[in-house]
Amino acid sequence: TTFQDGGEEVEDGAVYNVTLKKVQIQQAANKGARWLGGEGDQLPPEHTVRQYETSKIRAIKAGTLEKLVENLLTAFGDADFSYISIFLATYRAFASPRAVLELLLDRFGNLETSNQGEVANLNSLESEMVLRAEIASVLRAWLDQCSEDFREPPDYMCLLKLLDYLKNNMPNSDMESRVQNLLKQFQNQEVEAVDGFCSTSSSDLVDGEELEISNPEEFSSFQDHVVAEQLTYMDVMLFRRVVPYHCLGSIWSQRDKKENKNLAPTVRATITQFNAVTKCVISTILGTRELKIQQRAKIIEKWIHIAHECRILKNFSSLRAIISALQSNSIYRLKTTWMCVSKDILLMYEELSEIFSDHDNYLTSRELLMKEATSKFANLDSSEKENQKKSQKRLQLQKNKGVMQGTVPYLGTFLTDLIMLDTALQDYVEGGLINFEKRRREFEVIAQIKLLQSSCNSYCLIPDQKFIQWFRRQRHLTEEESYKLSREAEAAADTNILSPKSQKSMVKRISTLFLGTDVFTPPKEQPLKSSPAGGSSGESTDSASVSSCEFNHSETEDVCVTPVSSPEDPLKKISGYSLSSCSPDSSMSTPSSGVSSLPSFLLASTDDKSSVGSDKGYDSDKGSISSDKALPVYNRQSEGSCIIRVSMDGLQDSIYKSILITNQDRIPDVTQRALLKHNLEPDAVEDYELVQVISEDKELVFPRDANVFYGMNSHVNFDFILRKRA
Predict the structure, then answer these.
(1) Which of 381, 477, 491, 679 has its CA 20 to 30 A from that of 252?
(2) Which residues contact 56 (CB under 8 A, 6 or more apart)?
(3) Which domains does the chain have, with CATH numbers?
């Protein structure tokens, strides 16, 4: 089979990509070979005759909503077999379920009011039965893949409209019964708390129970593999409930608006669970002041073992949460405690941390995740022989149970990819047509989420109520509290218990582990800012390089993980998910190394600006899709565009938004877009000035009408601040 680019076809309200597919349909013996009695598949090429068939594949790349809905009925005839799945997974970014259903049923499904011309245009559908079969196929796929679209309590207007259509056009059909059952299911179901497994609110506790700081003895009584299995059980239950379209950048990025406080609840629940695990790790290590150094070190070792068990179970969410907590400033700074952690455990910890290295846009974790998604069991590899033996032994025990394992991902990676895609690609192209090429790119990410959700059905885990109740009861420390306890623990430690020689050796080992250098410089201790009302942390510190998340200070479940500061990069943030308001769209700060948070398929090589190859890019000057342009990226100007990060000076200076700019944009344009992104009034453009952060003590202030693209310093991070004019 060979493919050839057939160019574009333009219709009224739609643009199609055309591909010619040449397929061999027959191979027969030629006349001389038949006279000799030979068979085609047993003869050399010179004695055979091949017959080929060329077919045309039409894939819509942009169109009006009406054309996109119409294409649902004609996509199979155009050989665009994935179109229905792509449309159903992404249409919520540009249309509502009601709008799509009305177009599908009223315009194309109501044959009594459709004129003959409209019916004939639907790819030569010749009969009413064929059209009904096409509509039934679309509706069946909709119910199979996105039944949650019809959950609209209390009226369920879309579901009732669909039921009415089926009664009139497909009476007594299986689909009619299915819709009736779905309606009853929605009506009978009480509102489910999607975060029921991870909430630490008092309403989820048994009467008489209160939140408490972990008892070290009680925590130590749980076996490592039991803790890992229970964390995996909770993660699986929540991840399977994630509605994929909730992750779309255009939807998730709107969650900070007041009217959207209940937006994407399934994603928020997963993030809340991640934060609960991170906080639990910190509170078990720091919550008891009376612990001795060795006891605290044992708890750290236990969490590293639990992280390793999560790796065996292919639970990358809790694995990353544990690693994030251990890399937080309040835990990382416990130098004396880390010196008491055994060498083998430190090496294990180093290997687990390497999984989430930000090198090459987290290539290691991305490749590993996709490799694990299709394997029955974890693929473990350790450079340390002792750790390798332990890993293989535990893995063999899992295999002996005969039950395959799924894979639980770190959802922040996908949220980051989708946010960056939403920022880099335009929603509409020339003529006001919906850019469906953008939706195809988004579906590549959504499909990975669905694949991993499907794999989670392989888990066979039983909840341990004793552990789950213990986990829910944990009182989480604020960032201020954990930092204060960390300083107290370190001050109480007798640093003289180690000889100078052993101390020097241990310090070097830890410095190699955390900083990749032979000189250990402890992070500079900064006084914490006051915590906002509600008991949550004031300074949320998530990672631009890891999860590109932001913190919503109005939320009370904010995570309080303070990242490590290294001598080479004092502002570099390590680890973390954001909390209920986690967004890959924004972050606390940018690593000075300039590592982009863009997904791998958005990154262009520094040596070859066209390394994205044949991927479609958007020509912002012409307002159309260009086939040869690389997509804009953060921290590099390419093809007349780039992505910058803009934060608000003052109360929201820790939150940034990704903004796409071109070489035509001036200060008022960029300022207006930034204000809109931050949910502020765009009319106040003249009241703000745009500033690029050059270093800790240097800024570049732009004149009122400057061209941002040409005026910015392209040799430093593309980080900007929007500040009220004096």
Answers:
(1) 477
(2) 6, 18, 19, 20, 21, 78, 79
(3) 64-111+128-188 (1.20.870.10), 220-493 (1.10.840.10), 641-724 (3.10.20.90)
